[in-house]
Amino acid sequence: xxxxxxxxxxxxxxxxxxxxxxxxxxxxxxxxxxxxxxxxxxxxxxxxxxxxxxxxxxxxxxxxxxxxxxxxxxxxxxxxxxxxxxxxxxxxxxxxxxxxxxxxxxxxxxxxxxxxxxxxxxxxxxxxxxxxxxxxxxxxxxxxxxxxxxxxxxxxxxxxxxxxxxxxxxxxxxxxxxxxxxxxxxxxxxxxxxxxxxxxxxxxxxx
Length: 207
Fold this sequence. Notes:
The chain is 39% helix and 13% strand.
């Protein structure tokens, strides 16, 4: 069992940040640690407790490079369409995101969270489907943080979901929901991020 960081539940929840530039690209990540974190993630809720999720863990450099190239292409188009960052905070995020785009293939482990649709067409409102995968993916991020690793939530590769599925040999009824680049972090001293005031988004008994 990997030694855990001494974090309270609230500290773990509020300091699990999107980590890009502080991912340690040189330190190997044992598969056993990924398995530990996934065992925690599998305790997350899913619709009807059906647990139709799948976790594709990528460590092979050639496979990671192929997936990373699709991510890079999608990210470049996204950045071009978005124009210049609106403020200093957005500029920092953009710079950090650009960095991840260029080093994605070097990140020790890529984890793709996916879910089986049972061959059914995706509904117009897909909350029920993705609500059975995304809580587990967030639990995985928390479990990784507790073990001194970091990640960031990415979905831009889904612009090329079919191509990535072909690379990985995924069945037609398995749909990808998130790509998590995973590495040990450079330091573990993360702090809560800036957020809007609660009262600006809180509604009691209606809008």
